[in-house]
């Protein structure tokens, strides 16, 4: 197992998906965010079965950054109760996992 995480969240619009994705990547909370458009979600909310079109965010991050990702989603998201679940990455391409880790590290300033 690695310390890398895939975080899933759904949002109600393409604009909101892009806003959250850019925020996470610009602040190095995520190495990459895939936006999967037009996901149909069927769910129970406040005692009723609902359905709607959503955009799925597939967020690549680390265990260390997950709390900050969750907090950012909570602040930026329009939903009363946004989805934010993390899945552990068991294994993967060593090169990709290294790139992911390096993408989360802030650039060092020259001495």
Q: What does it look like?
A:
With about 110 residues, this protein is of the alpha+beta class. It has a single domain, classed as Alpha-Beta Plaits (2-Layer Sandwich), CATH 3.30.70.120. The chain has three helices and four strands; from the N terminus they run βαββαβα. It has helices at about 15-25, 65-75, 95-105, and strands at about 5-10, 30-45, 50-60, 85-90. It has a four-stranded antiparallel sheet. Helix 1 (about 15-25) crosses helix 2 (about 65-75). The radius of gyration is 15 Å and the shape is globular. It starts with a strand and ends in an 8-residue tail after the last helix. The model has no long low-confidence stretch (mean pLDDT about 95).
Structure, briefly:
By secondary structure, this protein is of the alpha+beta class. The protein has helices at residues 14-26, 63-76, 94-103; strands spanning 4-11, 32-45, 48-62, 85-88. It has a four-stranded antiparallel beta sheet.
